[in-house]
Amino acid sequence: MSPMPNPPRHEPEAPRDLVGIGIGPFNLSLAALADPLAELDSVFYEQRPGFDWHPGLLIAGATIQVPFLADLVTLADPTSPWSFLNYLKSRDRLFPFYFAERFHIQRAEYDAYCRWVAESLPGLHFRHQVDAVRWNPERDVFEVDFTQLDAEGEAEALGRTYTRNIVLGVGTAPYVPDPLRPLVEAPGVPVLHAADYLEHRDTVLAADHVTVVGSGQSGAEVFLDLLRHRPLGHERLHWLGRSEAFAPMEYSKLGLEHFTPDYTRYFHALDEPVRDRLVASQWQLHKGIDADTIAAIHDELYRRTLHGGWPDAVLTPGVQVRTAGRIATTQLELHVEHVQQGSRSRLTTGAVVLATGYRERPLGRILAGLDPYLRRDSRERPRIDENFRLVLDPSVTGSVYVQNAELHTHGVGAPDLGLAAWRSATILNSLTEKEPYPLPARTAFTSFGLDGPRHRIPAARQAMRLTPLVDDRQ
Q1: Is the dihedral of CA 419, 127, 166, 32 positive or negative?
Q2: Which 3 state secondary structure label does DSSP give 335?
Q3: What angle do CA 221, 222, 223 make, to 5 degrees?
Q4: How far is it, in rounded angstroms, from Cα 300 to Cα 321?
Q5: Among 71, 249, 367, 380, which residue carries the largest CB count within 10 Å?
Q6: CA-closest candidate to residue 74, choices 23, 12, 29
């Protein structure tokens, strides 16, 4: 598909219908589904120079954990020109994909697909850093201040746009535990987050000993990549994780129904304390390791025993890093504690890769101007309604929607790519009040809660059930 023609010139003082802040997969999904809605005037801002999805983890062979149907649009509109299948067709790759028989695509391919959409969609403005959002009660619009950046990331021009609605899709940020933060920020010995792994991969591989911290999918992929590229018998790898085991992700068919709109609605209706307990207990739904990755790690370890001996690789779950420090120019010392044993030890290593996950980016800076209007829960988190809108003071007639900032209100599906298209469609239906994307009333076989959907027995079967049986022997 060739790029769309430029939209009509927008008058600077005229309010838009929607301004998106951030262009990751979720706001890109919203932009793609908003594209055919001619009555919707929308624009999206992103401070980065182009679409960029976890570049440090685009390890060769690594796949995304959702089927290819969980692209930007298909689960809301299978006929959309922005589908993954249409991307393949535009690249003359549809038949090779058909014969490859891959339900889960490689992470690098998903990134390339998103780049194709981002480079073709109108209304996406990269190198635009949003600085502030305010509500203007006199005009009944939001004011969005931004800085346009040059190729070096320096301020080039200031701007302001007005809008009736906003959608925040600022994504997540790499999380670094406090004991390791000073080492990450200091030059010298390589201590880095997995988000930067590929950029520093050669440096890490050159270290005499490498420690991977984190027992989720990213940690497993980094450990496997290192293991495959270290000398046989001289691997010198250590993999630590806080969880009690290097556990597989829940991937049973009924288990996956926790990532359906049905469960999202059920979760949202629960009381706040119940929601908080559930999120903490459901880590294996989204923080475990793909079973194929676990198998690949075991296969590689086993291959290294074929000629006798064990690989020089230590895998230790149930361990947390208490403190860390530098003991020489090229060495680090990690002070670790085994949670179940209550024992402590020291580990000397030459490089550390932190696969310690991501956290929602704080919205305080961007939303500081709206703080007087925000309604918060008992833990000072923004309240978010069923349609992904921040709950604001009734005097604010516009809406602020969020994407992947609602884990505390909508559950484990918030960061899941499989719900991207449904959430985008929900937001657009709410915003336009015209339901341009009809959504299914039911999406799971599981009835979550006693007030869940009831199975309806067809009339013919009801009649059969109510008809007395006749004994053929009479």
Answers
A1: negative
A2: strand
A3: 90
A4: 27
A5: 71
A6: 29
pLDDT of residue 2: 44
Q: What are phi and psi of 390, to 5 degrees?
A: -65, 140
Place of tokens 């919205």: 363
HSE on the CB side for 23, CA within 13 Å? 30
Other beta carbons less than 10 A from residue 252's beta carbon: 7
As a whole number of angstroms, the distance between CA 274 and CA 351 comes to 40
3-state secondary structure of 268: helix
The CA–CA distances, whole Å, from 210 to 63, 199, 348, 404 equal 24, 16, 9, 33
Q: What value, to the nearest 5°, has the Cα angle with vertex 184 and ends 182 and 190?
A: 130
- Rounded to two decimals, the pTM is 0.91
| Confidence grade of residue 287 (pLDDT, cut at 50, 70, 90) | confident
Instruction: For tokens 């085994």, name the residue.
Output: 338
- Give the pLDDT score at 184: 87
> Mind giving me the DSSP string for 113-142?
HHHHHHHH-TTEEESEEEEEEEEETTTTEE
Kindly calculate the radius of gyration of the chain based on its CA atoms and give it in whole angstroms: 25
Q: Over the stretch 293-327, which tens digit does the pLDDT of each residue have?
A: 999 999 999 999 999 999 999 999 999 999 999 88
Across 390-395, average pLDDT: 97
CA neighbor of 331 nearest in space, from 181, 211, 223: 211
For the stretch 208-219, what's the b/e string if a residue is b when 16 or more beta carbons lie within 10 angstroms of its beta carbon? ebbbbbbbbbbb
Q: 404 with 26: CB under 8 angstroms?
A: yes
Greatest Cα pair distance in the chain:
96
DSSP string, 423-457: HHHHHHHHHHSS-SS---S---SS--STTSPPPPP
Please check the confidence at residue 124 and state whether its pLDDT lies above 60.
yes
- What does the pLDDT read at residue 472? 40
Residue indicated by tokens 């959002």: 133
Residue 22: burial class (beta carbons within 10 Å; 0-12, 13-18, 19+) = buried
- Cα–Cα distance between 51 and 29 in angstroms, integer? 13
Collapsed DSSP state (helix, strand, coil) of residue 87? helix
